[in-house]
Every structure is written in C-alpha cells, then in structure tokens.
Amino acid sequence: MRFDLDNSIDILRRTPATLEALLRGLAEPLMRGNEGQETFSPFDVVGHLIDGEETDWMTRARIILSDSADKSFIPYDRFRHRARNVDRTLDSLLSEFARLRADNLAELNGWRLTEQQLDLKGVHPTFGPVTLRELLAAWVVHDLGHIAQIARVMAKQYRDEVGPWTPFMPVLTDHEVPRS
Amino acid sequence: MRFDLDNSIDILRRTPATLEALLRGLAEPLMRGNEGQETFSPFDVVGHLIDGEETDWMTRARIILSDSADKSFIPYDRFRHRARNVDRTLDSLLSEFARLRADNLAELNGWRLTEQQLDLKGVHPTFGPVTLRELLAAWVVHDLGHIAQIARVMAKQYRDEVGPWTPFMPVLTDHEVPRS
Lengths: 180, 180
Fold this sequence. Notes:
- The structure is a homodimer.
- Chain A is mainly α.
- The first copy, chain A, has seven helices and two strands, in the order ααααααββα.
- The interface between A and B is large, with 55 and 55 residues.
C-alpha cells in the first residue's frame, strides 16, 4: 500500500474513540492486568500514548519541518508515564489523550503537507535519517500496535478461564516472551 | 483472574462500538487488506463475528442450558461469511453485528445465570466436555483476539511505509506465518 496522508490521519483520528469504547469504565483487574513484569497494562498503554502525543511524533515532525540545521530528534522516554500517572484514573487519561490527539491532528492538518515536504528528513537517535512520511506511517503503526496489545493483554487475563479452548485461541499464547 | 459474568458481558458489549470506531468508513485498501492467502481482512473478521453471533456462542449456550440429553455442539463453519457477504458493505456488516450482539446479550442477561448453571457442560466437537463458564470466557477471548487481529492486519498494510522503524514495531512482524 502506498502512503496516503488523508488515510493515515483518518486512522489516527479513530484511536481515541476506539480506546473509549474498549476501556472507559473497565473493571480494575482488566485495566491493570499485564503480561508479566515490565510489560504494559491497558492503563500503561494509554499513558504511553499520551507521552507520544506530548514528546514524540509531532515534536519530531516539527523538527523535520523547522529551519534549524540540526534535525536530530530528542530521545523519547518510553517510561515517562510511570511516574507521571501514579495518581490518575484511566478515564481521565482517556480524556486527556483524546484532547491531545485532536490538537495534534488539527495542527498536522493545518500544515497541508506536500509530497515534497513528506520527503524531508530528520535524524533518529537509533537509526539515523528518516523521512516525515516514514515518521507519520510509524505513528499510525504505533497506534495500531498498541490497540492490538491492549486487546491481547485483556484477553490474557482470561487465560485460566477458557479451559480446553486455550490452544485454539492464538491471542492467549502470543508473545510468550512478552514485549511491550 | 476469576471468571466474572458481569465483567465478561461488559467486554462483549464493548465490541460493536470498538469496531465502529476502528472501521466504519475505512478506506478500501485498509478494509480489504489481509496478511496473505487464506487470512482474514478486517471485512472478513466482521463477517466471521456475525457468524459467531448467529451460529456459535449463544447457540451452544442454549444447548448447554436445554433439557435435551444430547449436549453436543454443532460444528461451526469458520468460512460461512465468505459466500454470505459477497455483495455486502463493511458498514452494513458493522450495523448487523451490533444488532445481533445486542440481541444476544439481552438474552444472556435475561437468563440471570447462577454459578451452578455456569458449571453445566456441553460437548465440543473437537475437545469434548466444556462448561458454560468456559464457553462464555472463550467468547470474550475470541472477540479480543479478533480486535487485536484487525489492528495488526491494518498495521501490516503500512509495512513498506515505515522505513527503518520496521524492527522496532513488533506488530509488523507478528505472525510471520499468518493465522486467521
């Protein structure tokens, strides 16, 4: 599939409503359950997505589009949310994420990016030069990967409840060595 | 986590709205893209979930709760949707799924199942005796597994667009040998 900016913004716009439907008011053991030590619960994932809105995707897009000679991205803290959200509720994080995402997409839409601008590059701290197009595609994939993760982590809380169905439900045995 | 009927019904109730947010009006290549031959696109998954509402979960629950001496489940056709939905739109399938799910949950709620009833058994065509509790837990896990699948399959349509991010996005390389 060729990258299409409108389709990509369309997917990014769906994520807050998807998470609302899946998570608002969810029972505590489902909201806080994870796949083992150092892995993310649904609560953690929403916090991580908020961090992405505030410190990752749009921050890096602005660097690429800036007049600065130095296009290096600032490394992104995948665990900022842990300390930040200690006293927060999941429902308040969902509202905050929806607000941040709406603001970011309004800004992104306002840029009316051309194909030439999508070819502009920044420098990723790990893998070097990346285009704005690749950054925006990675944002979309990052959202979808974390939606898949939330559904998988919720499913795994039922792993002892399905009895003989376990081998027929691949989502229960995906990521035996968990990755967050 | 111990099986809780109310929490399980709560998750089952979320699925139509989750799929609405993720899929209604989605661009054709994203709606129809899959992970390779014989795997499900998002369109296929919604059709498969409709088949589940009409021929699988509640049908089997009714068999378990019936007065019949024979509690054998009828084998379930995982590919019924392929012929059934040839002329359908995704949006019409989403509406149909939401209606069927609402009806099924109204019936399930109306049963006011006791712990004793949740222990009752039926006979699965592949793995033999299963309890009503296990059947309902499997229904929940089945929903969540297919939500994860839809997000993963959508993400994979971007696999050539993210450039050097690929190895850092596990959702793109999950299920190298695809399972539907």
